[in-house]
């Protein structure tokens, strides 16, 4: 499963060295992330729990962990990558601040990748491939349709209504991209000649989009469930990626190709559960172009949120 590669990938893209790179090439990205998280922190009501939770924390590359640890009685980091969270906590200079940071290792999707993997392994792919493209892709779509998405996920160690601040830190698109890539990996390993055919298969596309929406909705439900009365949330998410071939051309539409990540319904899904107190959009560069490899970047939406109706 792709999710099993997460610790390796994070070592390349997170931590102190990565933050230093971002300060040089994408300083506005760090500034926007910090500003929104701190806005949410200071928007808590006085009676809300004086703690914070960071979902998808990783090494806290874009999270102002020192400030959170100083302002909160406790900061909980939740992610599958235990080593990354430990590295993020170890960056705190003061032992007293490190003691305030607790770590919960978990799959914050509630195990969607593992559930889909079991469905994939039960399919007779060789027989389905012999019956043709339509039958093969229908079976793949059925796996996506039948994949259960816990809504909201039950995360041991994270009790409902326990946190005055809940942060979802640039993790949302990963929650569905990893299982969808697992599906494509399995299809390509059995029938590489069908590669790309799923793009023109309506049932598959509808099933993939439904899985994205179900996972997003479940994550938003989780964030709301974990908030204490009077608490606030900060949601940071990549919404579109882009690639570009020339250094300095990342803002030039003629030199870059857009890659949609989140469904168009994303803003409406957010507003189903939350009242938006602040919304910001920005772009950041994650990789510069090198030789034959294009540069990459992302369009980001960030929210400060209060539960709808509160």
List the keywords.
Rossmann fold; eight-stranded mixed β-sheet; 310 residues; alpha/beta; 8 strands; globular
Q: Can you describe this structure?
A:
The protein has one domain: Rossmann fold (3-Layer(aba) Sandwich). The chain is of the alpha/beta class and 310 residues long. Strands 1, 2, 3, 4, 5, 6, 7 and 8 form an eight-stranded mixed β-sheet that branches. 45% of the residues lie in helices and 24% in strands. Helix 7 runs parallel beside helix 10 and helix 10 runs antiparallel to helix 11 (202-226).
Please summarize what this structure is.
The protein is an alpha/beta fold. 45% of the residues lie in helices and 24% in strands.
Please give the largest β-sheet: 8 strands, mixed
Measured by DSSP, the beta-strand proportion falls in: 15-25%
CATH topology (fold) name: Rossmann fold
CATH hierarchy, class:
Alpha Beta
Going by helix content, strand content and strand pairing, the class is alpha/beta
According to DSSP, the number of beta strands is 8
Architecture, CATH level 2?
3-Layer(aba) Sandwich
Give the uncertain stretches in residue-range form.
Answer: none
Sequence of secondary-structure elements: HHHEHEHHEHHHEHHEEHEE
Q: What gross morphology would you assign?
A: globular
Ends: how far apart? 40 Å
Gyration radius, rounded = 20 Å
Give the fraction of residues assigned to helices: 40-55%
Can you count the helices? 12
CATH superfamily: Vaccinia Virus protein VP39
